[in-house]
Amino acid sequence: MSFDRVWTDAHVATMVARDGDPLGIIEDGAIAAKDGRIAWVGRRRDLPDGAAITTRCDGAWILPGLIDCHTHLVFAGDRAREFELRLEGASYEAIAKAGGGILSTVRATRAATEEELVASALPRLDELLAQGVTTVEIKSGYGLDLGTEAQMLRAARRMAAQRPVSVLTSLLAAHAVPPEYPGRRADFARHVAKDILPAIAAEGLADAVDAFTDSVIGFDAEETSWVFDAAKAAGLPVKLHADQLRDDGGAALSARYGALSADHIEYANAEGIAAMAKAGTVGVLLPGAYYFIRETHPPDIAAMRAAGLRMALATDCNPGSCPSPNLLLMLNLGCTLFRLTVAEALAGVTTHAAAALGLSDRGALAPGLRCDLALFAISRPAELCYWLGRNPCIGRVVVGQ
Ligand code: NIG
Ligand code: FE
């Protein structure tokens, strides 16, 4: 066999379940790559000859490169003032209704240039990369007009050109009602579906379409369906901010559209969860936002397990509900707040996160998949969930490099 590169003296969590081990652990393992793909993975002593460059990993653990499948990394300004107001008693919802919240970030983002958006988002991306992240999803949603939504997505694409990482973009124009449409939520949803979405799709700026379904501060199911129908017409997959603050039937709606994922889903009901599992829609859990807005109604993990729903975990990094580009912290929060097992949490940032983005070429370590690796100085995989905001990542490989 011929390889370009080989990593040895490592323990490998392949994330391909076998013999009752959900992590697919290979102790004293090795991984070989050829042309950016994994060519071989197994016990070191079984490694065939054919290595060009060999890296000894000193007993480190190798996992698939981590995937943050839900972020709003591109935005201007911050919401520290809103944080203060919330400490004085205002709720996330009350601030949004008073024209703050998402709309205050919209004002800052509209005032920023594309260069400024890239410059402010890159340090957030770099924090994720330092933790072993090799694929990240980035949403628009702080423009709420065609020009600024396009600019946010272009900024995200430019970040991908400036760092060794895969970026997938999602158009989230249906995130809030902009000031130009006072009290005209349905009109704005129609504008997104008829004008903004087709123009963004024609420019190839979005890999998927997202929306915020919420009957009070987002869009209702019917308005969301206009946007989703337009996405289908443009050939783009959909995903949804669903049932974050109340049960609006978002889980069932996402299943009906065969969405890649429904995200947050704290208030999703058991029927909606079962429908998602049946439709292959991934449930993306965002424990950082749950924690930060001091939500007290946890997602129904028992129903998700019973339905066999694939659960992913992501940062939701955004200025309002989760100002944290720290995916490893989310592993801990997912375990502590939602009682996920270590295996569930780790699948949530690898295999299931890949599924939430519609990617079948990554998220696990097996021959033929992209050679995206994350190396950690840990003694067992549980350490990745155990440390509270510590980063044991010592290396990253992206397409074999
Ligand atoms: O994922 N729920 C709506 N959207 C974001 C929050 C955005 C913001 O507050 O700026 C979320 O939580
Ligand atoms: Fe979000």
From TrEMBL:
Keyword Transport: no
Catalytic activity: 4-imidazolone-5-propanoate + H2O = N-formimidoyl-L-glutamate
GO molecular function, one term: iron ion binding
Keywords of this entry: Cytoplasm, Histidine metabolism, Hydrolase, Iron, Metal-binding, Zinc
Binding site for N-formimidoyl-L-glutamate: 142, 318, 320
Start and end residues of each Amidohydrolase-related domain: 61-378
Names of the cofactor(s): Zn(2+); Fe(3+)
Localization of this protein: Cytoplasm
Pathway(s) of this molecule: Amino-acid degradation; L-histidine degradation into L-glutamate; N-formimidoyl-L-glutamate from L-histidine: step 3/3
Main location: cytoplasm
Cofactor note: Binds 1 zinc or iron ion per subunit.
GO biological process, one term: L-histidine catabolic process to glutamate and formate
UniProt-listed Gene3D superfamilies: Metal-dependent hydrolases (3.20.20.140), Urease, subunit C, domain 1 (2.30.40.10)
Pfam families from the UniProt entry: Amidohydro_1 (PF01979)
Chain sites annotated for binding Zn(2+): 70, 72, 241, 316
A GO cellular-component term linked to this record: cytoplasm
Record-listed Fe(3+) binding positions: 70, 72, 241, 316
PANTHER family linked to this entry: IMIDAZOLONEPROPIONASE, IMIDAZOLONEPROPIONASE-RELATED
Function field: Catalyzes the hydrolytic cleavage of the carbon-nitrogen bond in imidazolone-5-propanoate to yield N-formimidoyl-L-glutamate. It is the third step in the universal histidine degradation pathway.
Protein family per UniProt: Belongs to the metallo-dependent hydrolases superfamily. HutI family.
Protein name: Imidazolonepropionase
Organism: Falsiroseomonas stagni DSM 19981
